[in-house]
């Protein structure tokens, strides 16, 4: 029932509309028109103002068309794409959609958006009975899930559903790590590098010593850590007095996340403690200012959750093998779960995302759309 040609063409159309984070207006307007034509009531929330973007999250509500007591279902994807993502030229090579190598494809997450729209079209055309459906197309997922964070979930009827924002159609992600975001300011002491370096504390050196002691990368099977940004220094002839380090840690285990975060902070503090100076009767000491924020909580949807069972049942009906799995990445589903909903993340076929080599196999896209349609159908008959 999925119209492959229409789905493919709509995906390509969406990919050609630029929508970097905070600049999703054009694609949101296109989707608003599409969803209203399908009979939804569409609103746009004030998340755009809250995050400094040009449009908010798009919320579309479809009434139930069945008398069966079925649960309202959430279908969600994000409208924004990462850089470089302007002027994308999608190239179709058989069933493979790729780019000209200068931008991402934006299949992350336009594929999820296109699948949801196609499923809703099929439902309308074929008058398929279904539960109430809430569609949420978020902004700024790639900017730290901040569109979803601003979403007032009380505006939704659904308490469970799916985010379509991962690669393999064969996996339903039900577990994702919690993450901490860190910013460390390492303070040294400024001095002329040639005239009086003994009156300076080199903040770059302090930061380097601290980082050298840090366990980073893959810490264990469920924990990772990274220092991703280093900024500091004014000129080659000035002993630098400040370095800013930005990093993150993620873990499926909250206790391990806490330990890793403290470890990173401690490494820098220990390095700073090694750098003291005394002159002109004054004592100077390198020091570290730490700003640590919980980026998002973990996602941990149990196997027994109705949405997981629904996905398994749909996969069985289509003779597909879909496994529940854990991911190392965070997505809007983390935020939805944090807000009390039960939401898992289903694959769409996107590959090598966040690179200019991003590509997508249309066969996977069609399969994912069939899955979502089957899930909606099963949900309508109250299948648990
Ligand atoms: Zn994504």
Rg calculated over all Cα atoms: 24 Å
- What gap, in angstroms, lies between the N and C termini? 24 Å
Proportion of beta-strand residues: 25-35%
Outline type: elongated
Number of helices: 10
* Mean of residue pLDDT values: 96
Number of strands: 22
Helix content: 25-40%
Based on the structure, what is the oligomeric state of the protein chains?
single chain
Describe this structure in words.
Helices cover 32% and strands 29% of the residues. It is α+β, with helices and mostly antiparallel strands. Strands 1, 2, 3, 6, 7, 8, 18, 19 and 20 form a 9-stranded mixed β-sheet that branches. Strands 11-12-14-9-17 form a 5-stranded antiparallel β-sheet. It has a 4-stranded antiparallel β-sheet with strand order 4-5-22-21. Strand 11 and strand 12 (223-232) form a beta hairpin. The protein is elongated and about 85 Å long. The mean pLDDT is 96. The structure holds zinc ion.
Tell me the layout of helices and strands.
Elements: H1 4-15, H2 25-37, E1 41-44, H3 47-51, E2 58-62, E3 73-78, E4 91-93, E5 96-98, H4 107-125, E6 133-138, H5 146-150, E7 160-166, E8 171-176, E9 178-187, E10 191-192, H6 203-213, E11 217-220, E12 223-232, E13 238-239, E14 242-251, H7 254-273, E15 276-279, E16 282-285, E17 287-296, E18 299-300, H8 306-317, E19 323-326, H9 332-338, E20 342-347, E21 350-351, E22 359-361, H10 362-380
Helix pairs in contact: 1-4, 4-10, 6-7, 8-10
